Structure formats: structure tokens, C-alpha cells
């Protein structure tokens, strides 16, 4: 089965929306061990410069209604890395950057070093994965957003010597750097000084929204000018001190924190590594994959900003988390 590039009224790819406009599927990449991976791993340990490919990278979708996992929709090129970021633009799926950690199939032959890649792959209607011009700097798990014909990329899980942002023009097929905000460096959220900045692509300007923003998680999503994020005790780890306070909300227009009032019991922590997605129409989803027990877990809840009370009302849509079995080495969920 080939990967279908599906155009919806929101421009998302690989996403099926219901009558209410809410996504009913989440696409994900799965790193699948090849059948003879144990033999290859032993061979790699004996010969660390070997180039055996231990995994194949498959695209699937997780159905949030059934719940079910689709058959394989597409297989990426063998030099695709994990920790790449997927984004859709102009009816294409792009995968940006990635990470190697002693990978015997590393395309740049750095077999015994943890490092990052600047590779860019894309998929369109002709049914094949292709390479786009590489990013200007190697990045692992960068933030990315598409606006019109351009893709903006911010940050990395590693320091990039101040070159934290760049933009890809899909029409001109070239990358350019994005100027940093005045007197600041790092990511859009500057963890070095705890501030939060907004970038306006129309004129390339920056605005400091909150100089004392504080704690941050890359598991975040925006709904109606409110950024929702997960309080963490580490990198994307749940802070289990109070399960009702795991979610934070910051209004980027009012430039202040918004209180959240749970109408039902809030979702309990379901994993140590978690994703937060906006499925549409105010419906959020927390989702994760267990690499030890081989299953996806997810739970949906709805958020609504009440302008009269100044509160965020939140309601869990199901009483318990949903578990879907699927075996792979590593998985990356996306909203495209």
C-alpha cells in the first residue's frame, strides 16, 4: 500500500477528520527491527565500521476511535534518522534532521559518535521519498512550523552555537538563516534566561512576550491564542507531585498565565515520555509509546477559554486511557 497524500480543509496530511473537524488518526514513524537484526548486531559489535542497516522506518497511523494501527503506508529511505521532525507543507510531508548514536548505518560514516544530521526528506504525490536541500545546521528534534510555502525550523536538543532558527522556501528550494531576537540567543523559549519570545514571519520581527516565563516543555500545543504545555520534572517527564496541575496555559495575546479549571478528573500521568497534540476544535490528546512493553497509550480532553471568567475549562473525554499494542524499537508520533 502506498502512502496517500490526503488534502483536508485544514491542509493536514495523513490525518482523517470527523464531521466535527477533529483528527481521528495520528501518523507515526516506527523503527522496525529487520528479521535478522540479532545477527547484524553481533556483526556490528565485532566490526564497528560495518554499515548494516538494523532497522526499516515505516509510516503508520494510530486510529484514535477504533483504536487500531494501520498497515504500513510507506517505508522511508535507509538513511533516515530518528529524532527528525515531520511537518507538512504544499501537499508534501517533510522530515527534518535527526540523531545518530553509534548507528552502523550512519550515512556520514560517524559510526561511534552521538551526533546530529541536517538531512531533509520529503514525500509527495508521485509516491516516492526524495531528498531536499539539507538544513544549514544539524538538528535533532527541532521545532518546525509551515506557513504558506515556507517551513520555519527552531532549535535542537543540542546547542547550535547561536544558529537556532532557519527557514526553507519550498518554491525557491533553498534555506536561509532567521535573524535572532535582539540581545538574545538560543531557542524561541530562551532557557538560558527563562524568557518567551514570539516570531512574526511577515516582517521577520520578534517580540518578548514574557521575560520571566520559567519552566517549559517541548510537549506543547496552541489553541485559540493559548499555549498549553506540560509541567515536567525533566526532559518531557511528568511531574507527579500533583496530577491535577500537570498542564499549564499561557495566553499570548493577554500575555499572562491562565488558570485551568478541570470539570472532570484530570488525565493521570500515563508515561514518562509524553506528547501533547491539538486534534482540532479544542480537543487535546496526550499520547505516548512504551518501548519496553510495546504499546501506545493515549487520552483525549477538551479545553475552552471562558472570556467571562478568565479561566480555561478542561474536560476529559474518556474515563480511562486507551492502549493499543504495536511492536517496534522506537516511534515518533506527529500531527501533520
What topology does this entry show?
Blueprint (H helix, E strand, L loop, with lengths): L24 E9 L3 H10 L8 E9 L4 E2 L4 E2 L9 E5 L2 E10 L12 E10 L5 E4 L10 E5 L2 E5 L10 E5 L4 E4 L11 E2 L4 E6 L4 E6 L9 E4 L2 E5 L1 E3 L2 E2 L8 E5 L4 E2 L2 E3 L12 E6 L2 E8 L4 E12 L4 E6 L5 E4 L4 E4 L3
Parallel strand pairs: 22-26
Antiparallel strand pairs: 1-2, 1-28, 2-3, 2-4, 5-6, 6-7, 7-8, 9-10, 10-11, 11-12, 13-14, 14-15, 16-17, 17-20, 18-19, 20-21, 23-24, 24-25, 25-26, 25-27
Provide an overview of this structure.
There is one protein chain. The chain has 336 residues and is mostly beta strands. The chain has one helix at residues 37-46; strands at residues 25-33, 55-63, 68-69, 74-75, 85-89, 92-101, 114-123, 129-132, 143-147, 150-154, 165-169, 174-177, 189-190, 195-200, 205-210, 220-223, 226-230, 232-234, 237-238, 247-251, 256-257, 260-262, 275-280, 283-290, 295-306, 311-316, 322-325, 330-333. The two termini are 20 Å apart.
Amino acid at each position: 500500500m502506498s502512502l496517500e497524500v490526503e488534502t483536508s480543509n485544514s491542509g493536514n496530511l495523513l490525518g482523517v477528520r470527523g464531521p466535527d473537524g477533529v483528527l481521528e488518526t495520528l501518523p507515526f514513524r516506527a523503527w522496525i527491527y529487520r528479521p535478522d537484526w540479532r545477527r547484524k548486531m553481533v556483526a556490528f559489535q565485532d566490526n564497528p565500521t560495518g554499515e548494516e542497516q538494523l532497522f526499516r522506518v515505516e509510516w503508520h497511523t494510530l486510529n484514535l476511535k477504533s483504536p487500531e494501527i494501520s498497515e504500513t503506508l510507506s517505508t522511508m529511505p535507509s538513511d533516515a534518522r530518528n529524532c527528525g521532525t515531520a511537518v507538512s507543507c504544499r501537499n508534501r510531508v517533510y522530515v527534518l534532521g535527526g540523531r545518530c548514536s553509534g548507528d552502523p548505518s550512519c550515512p556520514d560514516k560517524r559510526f561511534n559518535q552521538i551526533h546530529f544530521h541536517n538531512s531533509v526528506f520529503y514525500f509527495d504525490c508521485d509516491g516516492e521519498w526524495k531528498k531536499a536541500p539539507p538544513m544549514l545546521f544539524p538538528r535533532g528534534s527541532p521545532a518546525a512550523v509551515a506557513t504558506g510555502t515556507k517551513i520555519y525550523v527552531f532549535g535542537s536538543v543540542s546547542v547550535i552555537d547561536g544558529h537556532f532558527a532557519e527557514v526553507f522556501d519550498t518554491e525557491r528550494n533553498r534555506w536561509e538563516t532567521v535573524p535572532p531576537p535582539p540581545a538574545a540567543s538560543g531557542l524561541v523559549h530562551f532557557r538560558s534566561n527563562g524568557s518567551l519570545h514570539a516570531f512574526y514571519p511577515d516582517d521577520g520581527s520578534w517580540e518578548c512576550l514574557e521575560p520571566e516565563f520559567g519552566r517549559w516543555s517541548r510537549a506543547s500545543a496552541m489553541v485559540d491564542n493559548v499555549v498549553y504545555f506540560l509541567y515536567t520534572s525533566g526532559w518531557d517527564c511528568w511531574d507527579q507531585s500533583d496530577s491535577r496541575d500537570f498542564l499549564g496555559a499561557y495566553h499570548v495575546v493577554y500575555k499572562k498565565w491562565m488558570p485551568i479549571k478541570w470539570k472532570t478528573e484530570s488525565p493521570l500521568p500515563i508515561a514518562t515520555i509524553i506528547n501533547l497534540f491539538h486534534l482540532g476544535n479544542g480537543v487535546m490528546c496526550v499520547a505516548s509509546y512504551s518501548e519496553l512493553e510495546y504499546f501506545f497509550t493515549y487520552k483525549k480532553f477538551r479545553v475552552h477559554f471562558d472570556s467571562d471568567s478568565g479561566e480555561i475549562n478542561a474536560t476529559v473525554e474518556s474515563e480511562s486511557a486507551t492502549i493499543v499494542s504495536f511492536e517496534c524499537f522506537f516511534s515518533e508520533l506527529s500531527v501533520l
